[in-house]
């Protein structure tokens, strides 16, 4: 008896396009930017100095870490 389930070809899984990734990245960046600006502006009051990253770099970092999580889920 032959086992047909051993070497069956697997179909290609759906991969998100680059355009879809860029749209999600942009949306998350735009959402993170106001919070990054508020955190950057409040840092001197709370910690006594400005953080090493600016608000745009912080928002880019957040978008860069959140967007792949969405596409890997």
TrEMBL record:
Residue ranges crossing the lipid bilayer per the database entry: 21-43
The cross-references to Pfam families, in alphabetical order and at most eight, read: PufQ
Q: Which InterPro entries match?
A: PufQ_cyt-su (IPR008800)
* Entry's Gene Ontology BP terms: bacteriochlorophyll biosynthetic process; photosynthesis
Question: Coiled-coil segments, which residues?
Answer: none
Q: Which keywords annotate this record?
A: Bacteriochlorophyll biosynthesis, Chlorophyll biosynthesis, Membrane, Photosynthesis, Transmembrane, Transmembrane helix
The record describes the protein's role as: Required for bacteriochlorophyll biosynthesis. Directly involved in the assembly of both the B875 and B800-850 pigment-protein complexes.
The similarity comment for this entry is: Belongs to the PufQ family.
- Its name, as the record gives it, is Protein pufQ
Q: Which organism is it from?
A: Phaeovulum veldkampii DSM 11550
């Amino acid at each position: 008896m032959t086992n047909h389930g051993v070497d069956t070809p697997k179909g290609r899984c759906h991969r998100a396009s680059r355009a879809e990734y860029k749209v999600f990245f942009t949306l998350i960046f735009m959402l993170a930017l106001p919070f990054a600006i508020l955190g950057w502006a409040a840092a001197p009051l709370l910690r006594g100095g400005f953080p090493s990253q600016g608000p745009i770099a912080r928002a880019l970092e957040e978008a860069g870490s959140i967007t792949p999580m969405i596409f890997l889920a």
